[in-house]
Amino acid sequence: MAHFDIGYRRCLAPDGRPLEALPDLAHDAETLIGLYRAMVRTRTFDAKAVALQRTGRLGTFASSLGQEAVPVGIASAMCAEDVLLPSYREHGAQLWRGVTPLELFLYWGGDERGSDFSGPRQDFPCCVPVGSHAPHAAGVALAFKLRRERRVAVAIFGDGATSKGDVAEALNIAGVWQLPAVFVVTNNQWAISVPRRRQSAAETLAQKAVAAGIPGEQVDGNDVIAVRQAAAAALERARTGGGASLIEAVTYRLADHTTADDASRYRDDAEVSRHWPEEPLIRLRAYLAKIGRWTKDDEERLLAATAAEIDAAASAYLATEPQPPESMFDYTFARLPTDLSGQRAQALAPVPATGPEPMTAR
Amino acid sequence: MAHFDIGYRRCLAPDGRPLEALPDLAHDAETLIGLYRAMVRTRTFDAKAVALQRTGRLGTFASSLGQEAVPVGIASAMCAEDVLLPSYREHGAQLWRGVTPLELFLYWGGDERGSDFSGPRQDFPCCVPVGSHAPHAAGVALAFKLRRERRVAVAIFGDGATSKGDVAEALNIAGVWQLPAVFVVTNNQWAISVPRRRQSAAETLAQKAVAAGIPGEQVDGNDVIAVRQAAAAALERARTGGGASLIEAVTYRLADHTTADDASRYRDDAEVSRHWPEEPLIRLRAYLAKIGRWTKDDEERLLAATAAEIDAAASAYLATEPQPPESMFDYTFARLPTDLSGQRAQALAPVPATGPEPMTAR
Amino acid sequence: MVEITLIQAVTLALARAMEEDPRVLVLGEDVGADGGVFRATDGLLARFGAERVLDTPLAEAAIAGLSIGLAAQGFRPVAEIQFTGFIYPAIDQLVNHASRLRTRTRGRITCPMVLRSPSGGGVHAPEHHSESPEAMFAHIPGLRVVIPSSPRRAYGMLLAAIRDADPVVFLEPTRLYRASREDVADDGAGLPLDRCFVLREGTDTTLIAWGGMVREALAAADALAQEGVSAAVIDVATLKPLDAETIVASVGKTGRCVIAQEAPLTGGFAGEIAARLAERGLMTLLAPIERVAGYDTVMPLPRLEHLYLPNAARIAAAALRAMAYA
Amino acid sequence: MVEITLIQAVTLALARAMEEDPRVLVLGEDVGADGGVFRATDGLLARFGAERVLDTPLAEAAIAGLSIGLAAQGFRPVAEIQFTGFIYPAIDQLVNHASRLRTRTRGRITCPMVLRSPSGGGVHAPEHHSESPEAMFAHIPGLRVVIPSSPRRAYGMLLAAIRDADPVVFLEPTRLYRASREDVADDGAGLPLDRCFVLREGTDTTLIAWGGMVREALAAADALAQEGVSAAVIDVATLKPLDAETIVASVGKTGRCVIAQEAPLTGGFAGEIAARLAERGLMTLLAPIERVAGYDTVMPLPRLEHLYLPNAARIAAAALRAMAYA
Ligand SMILES: Cc1ncc(C[n+]2csc(CCOP(=O)(O)OP(=O)(O)O)c2C)c(N)n1
Ligand SMILES: Cc1ncc(C[n+]2csc(CCOP(=O)(O)OP(=O)(O)O)c2C)c(N)n1
Ligand SMILES: [Mg+2]
Ligand SMILES: [Mg+2]
pLDDT tens, A155-209? Predict the structure, then answer.
């Protein structure tokens, strides 16, 4: 016989009211302000990216509107030497870890240099094939374990990803090898048009951990304090030899799936409206205001500064020349094989080429 | 918060002593004798197949020695119109359902006609790529559900298979769509050389069900009464709209993985010896003897009859001419495409071909 | 008869097939209320209900595996893989099961299923959304591989694929989805799945293409005509089983050819066609067989995509190179 | 120097690589105590310990994915997929990640990993144990595809593959594992991964093969010699990147060729080689390019396997057909 419990963690109510005994973190206003700034920065980046896409100056983009507490909460609990393996909706975590807004714009603008992070050099690039980075996290964690480094691999993916075999395989291996890895499910209730309840009959997604014999926990993903606490606990466990765990952060995707999506085809505006009051910025701002650490002025200054930073990055992005044609070839292998050098020469020859078409599709 | 329990079912102790309150089935001696006969028949088939392989007259073969209670217990709880999706070690279930020993010999002898079952026409052939038939079971079950048929798809696979993404994907889908499917893990403690504890940190394999939100149960897989009871309950649930479930039958692989394997490389003989007293035939025979329904004479008559049947099938197998060369082509598509008819003609032309090499490798 | 796009033709064929055969089901990610990310299944949920239009969980291997189970049970599943960049987890099911259930069971269990997927680049899509892996599928015995390149062919070939008794991988060139319109009669008429389509006759050279490259080949033929070169254009359309006859016959007449594929050169299906010609048409060739293909590199992200994609200019240039021979 | 088999050469190379580079790890199903089902990793666990020889759970996609994570972190994982019939679930990781991490990150993250797998038929193995899917891998940009066909080449090419900075799919012809012995010096010398091996010079025709077909090509050359036909034999060995020069040069001299592959004909790598010849060597060809291949059918179960597999006789017959030309 075996028994399992899946816990749920929440520190602040949606209106910012503290619940029960708050963790120490909740009394560390400087840190909370840092988290708030990061969430605002993420939202500002998202808004700018959507605007650029709408005006044909960026490719298809996946906004994290309303989910900012998850990537920020997770990343803020990580050490610099840990490795992040994000999916495509974790700009918040990437920005926290030092990926620059310019790099992110480049990536989403269709330029590989955007994944050549100047900051966290070992972090993985965005993973588009859903869930397929989960096994990489196990591999990175195995590397840490074998080298006896106190580092942790952190993979973030969505509720939809939990249906993928890759994720189950990775969790299982991380479990049996007690790897220093933390897997985070950003349950934003939707995988494009498929609602959470039609993705799995599991009452929680945290219980995917049970299949792997690792701890699983659900957390209010709009409560950045709770997310960070859960992440800190999981990271600490991983760092000290306690093995892998799974965190399900329950949030809501307020935006369309991507700029190529029209969510009104499959969900009511009313549903979206119902979730707005629960979004994470309101909550932390209200709490900070309640404890006297955030004013309207602070807010305005922050918005202005963030907008200026992101706008400058956008301008730099728009001013960036495309890579030269040979860049197509020069990173395929460490050394260009003979068989490819002919193709390279051909591509560089002044052959007639049609110009780039306008950026439209998804 | 969510809670889960994984139960364990056992009816007879290894020495045949009844435990607690026995189910009705345990008092139905005719049925039990049928189960006993089926297990003996399975073991006889296995022994013959190994003997044929050892003498170069059969291909690589996977024996189910010691695990007979699982396939027999499961198959005996199924209805004829249910569909079985076996892996490669479920001869016991196939034989129960009407696949003939001759067909099984043909299959393991390298002849496709062995999968053209005369009996259960809709049962799937053996599945060699581990776990890859689990999604087929979900598809078959979906067909039943859509047609509103009271039928169940039953997939059987090993402890190793539970690490495969396919199995997790299939369980999850069967869960969310409440499909009439039963998934059975034959946990025989080994996946070739990898012991159960190094396959997963999960305390039980039954708890893989938790990830899918379906019921999971552990059962003593050497206790055919318990296996059949568990199967009957899961089948009934599936048949009456209650959805899918998972049964972990805990048993032990007494044989080498296959005839190509040498288990002494990775496990002690002592471990194997320790498990012999728990094997399923002893147990049921002892119980039947205890309740006065099985004698030495019965045993001898059964062994003789079974040996005669299996020997006859082996002779028929050995006397079966190979298929004609055109059989390679004639089942590739419903109608032979022009592009293939040229190849067919070429293959049938009296081209020089080397003869078959002796059967050796794994 | 109405002028419709290729994607609309796909929808029309799906609806027709579902109308005429209750065994036909549509399944995949977002095929229901969303109508598919490209709208291929738009309106089908409303019309045929949730038991025939199934939104699956996010699991491509299982989508293929489910389809196999359904097909084995007599349904005619038409599964959508959202982009071919995500089809790879389904390959195991295609190779090891879908394509060989018939042969493994000597015809007892069969697998009449269609796996549809938008394929190819040219639409400035994100990473992994511009793949052209058709050659991988064309190497799998027991599978048909079909790529339509016009609304009419999409309609007729999809109907034929759904009606076929065996598994079909049906790749739809994303960049042609809305590229042009054509009159398509919703008459339920299928098109053969073992025949190339000669789109244009010609005497000097034969341009051979499929999918997104067909439009480029036609444009190249126009350009060549300006230079006084008469180019035949063949849409291969069904890669497997291949209609080598039509190709060999055309090249037999013209003596020259250019085979265009969007996929990376090495190991692509253009190689197979070139090999067929080198085996069977060698003696009629006047010039080397030219292949115009993607480079053996990962397709660049959108900003440089146009430098990667073969186009009419490259095809025409290759044809002119060949014209330089006798 | 000792006479060893191909499988022993694999073991020797693995041990050597592990000895000389602590970053080299071996992982896969049953690679530990069991030493691999073919014994490729025999003795490595005892010698290098459980932190460098890892028995994985049964999950091929994850084996590839783990290797990617390890490689990104600077390890040099050598993963075993037990049979190529079970490699398909790993394709997604190879296509979408291993082969493109370098290009996606402009060289920031790389993926020096080797995926080894016994490949091909001819050993009377069960279903799904006789696959030859090399062409699928050879179509993936950013991947190397290597198939040794002798103990020495197995040793040298495996060492080179492990030392290579990029991912390599290393397919080992099962039927050659114990087919013959050869002196192999354990000198740590790698062999190039971008070069074909000319095993025999010849003047009338060129026999081109890889893997299990190399032995058949050599036997065919012997048979042809008896008929007075001088056949060069080339072991392609590295399919990607392809050394087209060596092949074109040989066929340029002989004017005729037979390309032998065990895989099904259509979409196989022989097509690529034929296409290269048709592009670059066309004008020197005296006869059509002959391909001898498996049929476009699922490989039959062992009882009929010998009827399916291309062999020396079929290769020789094709060569003689070509000899009939001028
Ligand atoms: C393997 C794979 N299949 C399909 C897709 C197409 N796709 C992109 S995002 C998405 C939904 C993902 O949902 P979820 O995992 O919940 O993440 P979210 O987008 O909500 O952040 C799908 C189906 C993909 N990228 N990868
Ligand atoms: C996908 C896949 N990978 C590897 C193999 C090779 N293989 C055959 S059986 C086996 C072990 C299976 O173990 P388990 O699932 O416990 O079943 P058992 O053999 O014990 O019945 C392996 C690795 C395979 N058949 N399929
Ligand atoms: Mg989601
Ligand atoms: Mg087992």
Answer: 999 999 999 999 999 999 999 999 999 999 999 999 999 999 999 999 999 999 9
Query: What is the phi/psi pair of residue B194, to 5°?
Result: -95, 115
How far away is chain C from the Cα of D116, in angstroms, using its nearest Cα? 18
Q: Which one of the ligands is nearest to B193 CA?
A: 2
Show Cβ contacts of residue C185 under 8 Å, excluding neighbours closer than 6 positions.
C1
What contacts 24+ positions apart, CB below 8 Å, involve B113-116? B113/B320, B113/B323, B113/C106, B115/C104, B115/C105, B115/C106, B115/C108, B116/C105, B116/C106, B116/C107, B116/C108
Which of C132, C136, C303 is the best mutation test for D, with the most CBs of D within 10 A?
C136
Helices (H), chain D: 6-20, 44-48, 60-72, 91-93, 101-104, 134-138, 151-163, 212-226, 244-254, 269-280, 302-308, 312-323
d(CA D174, CA D128): 13
Q: What is the pTM of this model?
A: 0.97
Backbone angles phi, psi at C196, to 5 degrees: -80, 160
Q: What distance in Å separates the CA atoms of residue D33 and residue A164, rounded to the nearest whole number?
A: 31
Question: How many structural domains is chain B composed of?
Answer: 1
- Domains of chain D, with CATH numbers? 2-184 (3.40.50.970), 197-324 (3.40.50.920)
Instruction: Match 């022989």 to its residue by tokens.
Output: D270
Span from the CA of A128 to the centroid of ligand 1 (angstroms): 8
Say if the Cβ atoms of C30 and A325 lie within 8 Å.
no
Q: Is residue A312 part of a domain?
A: yes
Look up D97 and say whether it is catalytic. Answer: no
Q: ipTM beyond 0.90?
A: yes
Chains in contact with B via at least 3 Cβ–Cβ pairs below 8 Å: A, C, D
Contact residues for C177 (Cβ-Cβ < 8 A; gap 6+): C5, C6, C7, C38, C118
Residues linked to residue D184 through DSSP beta bridges, in sequence order: D2
Structure tokens at A323: 């890579």
Domain contains A345: no
CATH of the domain at A54: 3.40.50.970
Residue type, C62: A
CA angle (C37 as vertex; C33, C40 as ends), nearest 5: 80
Kindly state whether residue A156 falls inside one of the protein's structural domains. yes
Ligand 2, CB within 6 Å, residue ranges: B 89, 128-130, 157-161, 186, 188, 190-192, 253, 257; D 29, 58, 60, 82, 86
Quote the domain boundaries for residue B292: 7-324
Integer Cα distance of B3 and D49 in angstroms: 40
pLDDT tens track of chain D, all 326 residues?
Answer: 689 999 999 999 999 999 999 999 999 999 999 999 999 999 999 999 999 999 999 999 999 999 999 999 999 999 999 999 999 999 999 999 999 999 999 999 999 999 999 999 999 999 999 899 999 999 999 999 999 999 999 999 999 999 999 999 999 999 999 999 999 999 999 999 999 999 999 999 999 999 999 999 999 999 999 999 999 999 999 999 999 999 999 999 999 999 999 999 999 999 999 999 999 877 889 999 999 999 999 999 999 999 999 999 999 999 999 999 86
Token match 């349904």: residue?
Answer: C75
Smallest CA separation from ligand 2 atom 19, residue? B191
Residue A357 within any structural domain of the chain: no
Around ligand 1, the residues with Cβ closer than 6 Å are A 89, 128-130, 157-161, 186, 188, 190-192, 253, 257; C 29, 58, 60, 82, 86
Closest C-alpha among D132, D89, C75, C110 to residue B115 = C110
Query: What does R_g of chain D's alpha carbons equal in angstroms?
Result: 19
Q: Tell me which residue in D61, D77, D240 faces A166 most closely, judged by beta carbons.
A: D61
Hey, of C31, C44, C54, C124, which one would you mutate to test binding to chain A, going by the most A CBs within 10 A of its CB?
C124
Cα C2 to averaged position of ligand 4 atoms, centre (Å): 59
CA distance A146 to A141: 9
